[in-house]
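in:
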């Protein structure tokens, strides 16, 4: 049982995605301290929308474990949507949500209830100056840009006093978040409105200024997936308090496996570092061994976290390739023999790259000794590296119950000749008492009667895991049905007490005139309404341009800002030789320019 500690400890939060109410509950069951979810509008994942009624149910479920629910209201807001955006914030507060994740500053100009505001990563939170400004104008937390290194995060934490959140796992946008206008320019579907067409996952030819093809038909803008599980300790010490998993479009298997994996890693840290504590209550008991290699990934990268530039693209495919399974050491007519440490099984899916580096896949139909018989041997050759893209046994296990989350609690059982007193206290020091006027009968065996009381009060049919102690020797015999009723009653009382004592943070944003870092704001500030413009004017902006979605002429505008660099990825990085390159896809032609001084890349539409 976790004991109350009066010492102020830093809370560490595992933050998980919730596509819907069921996956939100799944994330909490598997150890999430908080979940983020989209409502029916203004979420950066348009296809992951939820009703206020469903979010309210999720809030009630989460708060039982003192876990939190954050609503993603992180798109740009148009003028005719301002009242709708305000009402969503009010609704989120009224149903008990713990914070709003936003990028549009119009929300700070509205009269909102005292709900904490988190600055979305779409607000382009790259520098200590930017984060300090957001702190000073009233944000409660800042979600940092994924491109930052540990050194940069440490510097931000030293110069600010705001909670810092950072992505640690999942799909990566190739552009700085909130700074990508490519989808909107090419298709009219804006990433800043939650409906990105993902042109970064398409194939392109790369052509130089003379028209010579450098690379043909590759996924030149598609990145591998982020995995910072090896850097959690470093991130904690750098100043991160919330560790975010990407994946509001992922399935239950992904949520279970990845959340459970990071829960174990964070718990390992907490068990050996007494100055930190978990941000929610309860203990998750897993019925499987989590392994992120078994969930969706395009291969993993730690991106720029160690400050070093490295190869981060998945050039040959934008699809999941799964876990590396070894190489084929002999290919027969209808079977192969693999040099692998993986236990491949019937029904597993495997994939591989053919001689043209095209991703191919097949299914294992039968295994006989060393011989593996796939559905098709096409393109499978001796020496081919294979990946297990579908682990049938693992996915089958993920369809079962895979975790139980319990809150530790104690029951003191006190009885005398006239009454029984049950005194229950949970791990958060919530305490209730149940007095029962009931006389039992003289037990034939005191020890057996005591064991029966302990056994039935300890039953695990609630969120509590009870440790029961009998506090005197006047044990009587009671019917099992009566003891079960007492347990149900004490559980109901303790749940009500937990709900009553849940501390929801309330923050009322007060307008101020903290000066902006810049007084000229172009389309990349994503200002799509009059209230957002008012906000920036009040903070000192003298020149304000409309958001790309409002004035969407792509002429001479940078459509994508990248820390990732195609030249470096392809081994073509030469200081001083940074001529533009061009990306071709069907009828689209994009110009790629390079700022070698800042080690950044920009993409524009070629007119």
């Amino acid at each position: 049982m976790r004991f109350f500690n009066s010492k102020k400890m830093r809370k560490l939060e595992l933050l998980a995605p919730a596509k819907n109410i069921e996956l939100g509950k799944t994330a909490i069951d598997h150890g999430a301290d908080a979940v983020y979810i989209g409502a029916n509008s203004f979420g950066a994942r348009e296809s992951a929308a939820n009703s206020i009624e469903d979010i309210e149910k999720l809030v009630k479920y989460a708060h039982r474990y003192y876990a939190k629910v954050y609503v993603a209201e992180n798109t740009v807001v148009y003028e005719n949507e301002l009242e709708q955006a305000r009402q969503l914030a009010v609704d989120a507060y009224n149903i008990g949500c713990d914070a709003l994740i936003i990028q549009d500053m119009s929300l700070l100009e509205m009269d909102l209830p005292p709900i904490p505001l988190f600055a979305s990563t779409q607000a382009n939170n790259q520098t200590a100056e930017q984060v300090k400004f957001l702190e000073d104008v009233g944000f409660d937390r800042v979600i940092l840009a994924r491109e930052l290194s540990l050194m940069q995060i440490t510097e931000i934490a030293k110069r600010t006093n705001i909670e810092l959140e950072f992505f640690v796992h999942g799909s990566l946008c190739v552009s700085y978040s909130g700074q990508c206008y490519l989808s909107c320019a090419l298709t009219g579907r804006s990433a800043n409105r939650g409906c990105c067409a993902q042109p970064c996952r398409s194939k392109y030819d790369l052509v130089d200024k003379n028209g010579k093809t450098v690379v043909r038909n590759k996924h030149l803008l598609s990145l591998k997936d982020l995995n910072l599980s090896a850097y959690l300790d470093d991130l904690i010490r750098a100043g991160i308090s919330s560790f975010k998993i990407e994946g509001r479009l992922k399935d239950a298997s992904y949520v279970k496996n990845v959340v459970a994996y990071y829960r174990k890693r964070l718990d390992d840290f907490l068990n050996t570092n007494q100055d930190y504590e978990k941000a929610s209550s309860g203990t998750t008991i897993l019925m499987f061994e989590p392994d992120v290699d078994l969930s969706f990934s395009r291969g993993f990268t730690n991106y720029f976290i160690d400050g070093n530039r490295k190869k981060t693209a998945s050039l040959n495919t934008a699809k999941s390739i799964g876990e590396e399974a070894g190489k084929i050491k002999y290919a027969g007519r209808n079977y192969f023999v693999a040099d692998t440490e993986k236990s491949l099984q019937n029904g597993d899916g495997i994939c591989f790259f053919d001689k043209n580096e095209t991703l191919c896949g097949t299914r294992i139909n039968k295994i006989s000794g060393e011989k593996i018989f796939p559905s098709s041997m096409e393109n499978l050759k001796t020496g081919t590296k294979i990946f297990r893209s579908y682990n049938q046994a693992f996915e089958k296990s993920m369809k079962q119950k895979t975790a139980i989350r319990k809150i530790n609690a104690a029951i003191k059982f006190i009885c005398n000749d006239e009454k029984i007193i049950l005194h229950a206290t949970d791990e958060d020091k919530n305490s209730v008492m149940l007095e029962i006027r009931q006389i039992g009968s003289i037990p034939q065996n005191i020890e057996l009667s005591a064991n029966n009381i302990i056994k039935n009060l300890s039953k695990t049919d609630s969120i509590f895991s009870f440790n029961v102690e009998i506090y005197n020797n006047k044990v009587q015999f009671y019917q099992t049905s009566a003891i079960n009723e007492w347990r149900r009653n004490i559980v109901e009382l303790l749940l009500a007490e937990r709900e009553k004592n849940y501390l929801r943070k309330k923050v009322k944003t007060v307008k101020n005139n903290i000066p902006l870092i810049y007084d000229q704001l172009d389309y990349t500030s994503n200002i799509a309404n009059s209230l957002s413009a008012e906000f920036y004017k009040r903070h000192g902006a003298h020149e304000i341009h409309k958001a790309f979605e409002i004035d969407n002429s792509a002429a001479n505008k940078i459509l994508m800002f990248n820390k990732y660099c195609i030249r470096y990825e392809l081994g073509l990085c030469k200081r001083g030789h940074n001529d533009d390159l061009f990306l071709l896809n069907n009828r689209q032609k994009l110009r790629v320019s390079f700022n070698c001084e800042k080690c950044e890349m920009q993409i524009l539409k070629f007119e």
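note: Residues 179-222+514-607 form one domain.
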